[in-house]
Amino acid sequence: MTFRLHEQLHADTYTVKDLPLCRVLLMNDRRFPWTILVPRRDGLRDFHEVAKADKATFHAEIDHVSEALKRLTGAHKLNVAALGNMVPQLHVHVVARFDGDAAWPKPVWGQGVAEPYDPPAAGELIESLRKELHG
Fold this sequence. Notes:
Blueprint: H1 7-12, E1 13-18, E2 22-27, E3 34-39, H2 52-73, E4 77-81, E5 92-97, H3 119-133
Antiparallel strand pairs: 1-2, 2-3, 3-5, 4-5
Helix pairs in contact: 2-3
């Protein structure tokens, strides 16, 4: 079976790169540097459904992206979460947070209206993320 990204994730994000297990996406909301990891395995909705053989890679990739986003942004705090209430495909949010950001100290979900990146800014951040995630 071929991996298919949920249409809502496709509509709301830019693709950064594929790691060995997960596709890394950039949420199209410039208020928060925000990545999303999606395991490229069909039919996954919750953490416990990730195959034992994939679990170590899944957690390592979440750590890798978290560390890269923190280095790149200098975030004060990283929020890492897998909700899946609106999008049934398993995906993990890694959100760089800053004291005084648009939602601080509340969660980013449901806070205000997303502010899309202009394409050049999105491209620059995507390239920076790719470099941070290399290796």
